[in-house]
Sequence to fold (180 residues):
Amino acid sequence: MNAVELLIAMLLGIIASLMAWWILTHSLVPKILFAPFISKVKVKGKEDYKFRIGIRNIGNRDIIDVEIIIELIIKGFDKDVPSNTSYIQLKLNKPRLPKIKKKNQWALTINTTNLPNSLLPVYKNKNFEDLLRIENAEAKIVVFGYDRFSGTRKVFESKHYTINDIEEKLFEKKYYGKYL
Fold:
């Protein structure tokens, strides 16, 4: 084998390795689809509502050791420094999951108990909707997890939800393939 053949073989090996890496990290990976709205569901026998987020793994592999965070983002909420943005982590009924299998979905309830004292004056009816009614308030979901095959940690972020993204309905087939 002469030097030119050796160089061509090395370049082909590098290109093949890069293609395999790209396929493993961009094509055959878990992918999270977030519901386009936050579900508002009436609690039977009460005047309360449950507010739920929906996530689905639409990728080709399982996600393991999953952590899910929902943040309330309020621009100008701190009156001492109105140019700052406040990030307040809210609780979910199940913030950690052992795994989300491929093509599997979850609906998680937002828990608005034990909020920071700074939110209590604006928190009237003790529901998530009141929090999004705060001026310049948005919510964002962040999902952390590991690709079961490669062990690579992945981070997925939703869009920023506003008060207009709350809908009084369940997550239906058209969003996830079956009811949650």
